[in-house]
Amino acid sequence: MTTTARVQGRVLAQRLAEAQATIAALLSGQIDAVIDPQTKTPVLLAKAQASLRESEERYRRIVETTSEGIGTLDSEAKFTFVNRRLSELLGYPTEQIVGSPLSRFTRPAALSESPLGAAAASAEVELGFVRHDGSELWALLKASPILDAEGNRAGTLVMLSDRTRHREDAAALRKTEEQYRQIVEATAEGIMKVDSAARLVFVNRRLAAMLGYEAAAMLGLSVSAFMTSPGAQVLARSLEGGRARMGPVDTTFRRKDGTELAVNVAATALFDAEGRDVGSLAMVRDVTERKKLESQLIVSDRMASVGTLAAGVAHEINNPLAVVIANLDYVGAESASGIVTDGPSEIQVALADAVEAAERVRLIVRDLKIFSRAPSDDPTTAVNVRTLLESSLRMGWNEIRHRARLEVSYGTVPDVEANEARLGQVFLNLIVNAAQALPEGRAEAHRIDVSTRLEGERVVVTVRDTGRGIAPEDLERIFDAFFTTKGAGAGAGLGLTICQRLVRDMDGELTVESVLGKGATFRVFLPVARPAERAQRRAPAPVAIAGRRPRILVVDDEPMVRQAVQRILAKSYDVVGAVSAKQALAWCASGEHFDLVLCDLMMPDMNGMDLHGELGRTCASRIGRMLFMTGGAFTEPAQRFLSQLEEDHLEKPFSPATLRAIVEKYVG
Amino acid sequence: MGKVIKKKRKKPAPALVLRLYVAGNAPNSVRAITNARAICDEHYPARYVLEIVDLIEHPDTAMADGIIVTPTLLKLQPQPVRRVVGNLDDTAQVLLTLVAT
Known about the structure:
Chain A is α+β, with helices and mostly antiparallel strands. In chain A, about 45% of the residues lie in helices and about 25% in strands. In chain A, helix 10 (about 290-340) crosses helix 17 (about 560-570), helix 12 packs parallel to helix 13 and helix 18 (about 580-590) packs parallel to helix 19 (about 610-620). Chain A starts with a helix and ends with a helix. The model of chain A is unreliable at about 535-540 (pLDDT under 50). Chain B has one domain (about 15-100): Glutaredoxin, CATH 3.40.30.10. Chain B is built from four helices and five strands; from the N terminus they run αβαβαβββα. Chain B has a four-stranded mixed sheet, covered by helices on one side. In chain B, a hairpin with a 4-residue loop joins strand 4 (about 70-75) and strand 5. The chains are: A alpha+beta, B alpha+beta. The interface of A and B includes residues 29, 33 and 52 of A. Strand 1 of chain A pairs antiparallel with strand 3 of chain B.
C-alpha cells in the first residue's frame, strides 16, 4: 500500500511536472497546436496560423514572381485568380481579368478550335490572344485540372508563356524561306530535288514548264519518267558513284508529249547529318537555243574556211578566168564581124553561153571572198543607184519571174557614195529574198516593188514584197547572224547580216518593216556621193598624145593574161608585153617610152609595187600612167598601196569592155 | 562459427526509441524536429529511433498517446515513458528526461 501510494505519488508528481512544463511551453510560445478535448480535433494556435500564412505567402511570391502567367479558372472557365505576370501579358488589370471568361482574351474562335474546348485532362496549346491595347499576343497555354478532395474537377490551372518572339522568329524564317522560294521559282534554270530512290520531291515551275507538266503533278514521279535512257544513265552513274557533284553534262530529257528536250544538267548529292545519301539536287538548263547556235556556228566555221580557201585560190582562179573572159569576148567580136546571119549563129549562142558561165564563175568566187574580206577592201565611189539596181534585177530575174510581177519606180536621185560591187550584192540579196518570200507559180497574185527616192541627204532604195511577212519576234532578230526562217540547208542565215554590215560600212542604213501576212519592206539608206572629194580622187587628165598611137606596156607573169590584154587592146594601141617586172624595168631604163603601164600586182621576184617605185625613181619622164591589175589575193601592204594610188585598179577577171573603158580614161 | 559472426554483426537493439508529435510544418514543430535529431545524433549516435508523427494527420494516435499539445517528444524506450513538451531548445532538460527513470 505504501509502495503503491509511493508509486502513485511519483506518477502524480510526474504528471504535475509535465503539466507545468506544458504550461511553461505554452507561455513561452513553444506550442503549435492543442487538441480540443471536446471535439478531439487539433486546433492550430494563432502563431502557427501566422506561420501558415507565411508559408502561403511564400507560394504566392513564387506565383507572382514567375515569368509565366498563372491563373485559375472555375468550372465555367472564368478566371478566379491571376498572377501579376498574367495581367501584364494580357495588359488588363487583375480585377478586370478575374471573373471574366478566358475566351474574352483570346482571338475570335481561337479557343473553340483548340483542344481546350474539350474537357481534356490537361492540354498544351499555342493560342493567339488580344491584349487590352489591341496588340497581338501569342502564348503557349498549359492547362491542368484542379481536383477537389473527392477528385472532381473544381477548375483549371492555366499557365501562359509568351511565344510572340518565337512567332516573330518563325515569321522571319518563313519570310526568308519565301525569298528562297521566289528565287527558285524565278530563275531561268529548272530545279529539281529527288530522294534516294530517284523520285521527285521538288520541282520548280520552270522545270515543269520545260517538260510540259504541272509542277504539282510531277511530285512523286520517278526521274525515269522524263529522263531518256542516256540521261538517266548519266545521272544514275554519277550518283551511285557516291560523288558529291555531277556535271554539268549535256543530255536529253523527254517532255510529257514525248518530244525531246536538249538540256544541260548539274547535280549535287545530298546527305543528311549522319552522311547517308538522301537524294540529289539538280539544276537543269534548256540548251535548245545554244545547241542550235552551236550547229549554226559549225556551219559558219565551215563558211569561213571556204572563205579562206576562196581567198587563197582566188588569184589562181581569177587569172585563168580573166583569160577565158577576154578571149571569149575577142572570139565573139571576131566571129561576129566575119559572119552575117539573120539570127544568132550556133557559134554566137555557144559563145554567149560560155560568157555567161564564166560570169557565174566570177560571181561565185567573189561571193566566197566575202567571208574573208576586210571592210577596207571596198573603197567607195559615186554610184548610180538606178544602173546598179537594173543590173541586180537582171541577175535576180530568174528568181522573180515565176513568183511575182515586178514594179519599178525610179525617182530622180543623185549618185550615192558606195562600193558598187558590194551595193550590187546588197540589192541582189534583197531582191532574191523578196522573191523567195513568195510562193512559186502565182506570179499574177504577187508583186515586188523596187523604188528609189531622195530623202534629205540620203537616197532611199526600197524593196517591197507582198509575201507572208515576218513575225514580230522574228523581226527583232532578222539581222542576227545565223538567224533564218528558211528551212535547214536553205541558207546559213547570213545574207541579211552581211547586207547590214556592208551597208553600214558605206555609212548607210538597212531597215525592215513588216506586217505579218502583208509582206515585208526593206529600205537601204545611202549617203549622197561627195562631189568635192570626188574631184580630188578623180584620175588626173589623160596623158596628152599628139598624132600617134599610144604605147602600152603589159606586165604579167601569166602569158595568157598578157596575150589576152594585148589582143583586146591591139586594135587601138601599140601593146608590148613583159613577162616580169625586171624585164619591164630594163626596157624602160633603156629609153623605151610608154603612155601606160598595165601591171600585175602580185608577181614572183619583183612585184608591181616595187616596179612602181623603181619606175617612179628612174624613168618617171618616160612613163605616162601606171594601172594595176589584181587577182584578189591581197596582202596588207598591197591593200595600203592600192588605196594610196590616184588611179583606179582593175580586178581580175575583168571584161574587155571594162579594160577598154579604163584604158581610154587614162590614155584618151 | 557462422553464428559467432552473426552475433558480432547483429545490429544492437536501439538504446532509445522516441516519437515526436508535430503540427505540420508549424515553426515550433520544425524546430523541435531539428533539435531532437541534433541531440540524438550527438548523444545516441546510431542507437536511436526517432518517429515523427503529424498531429493533424494522425489525431487518433495522438489521443491514444495522451498528447494534448504539439510539439511533444515521447520517450518510449527505455521505460518508463517520459515526455518533453515544447520546441526542445532546452537540451539539458531534454537529456534529463531521456535518462530519467
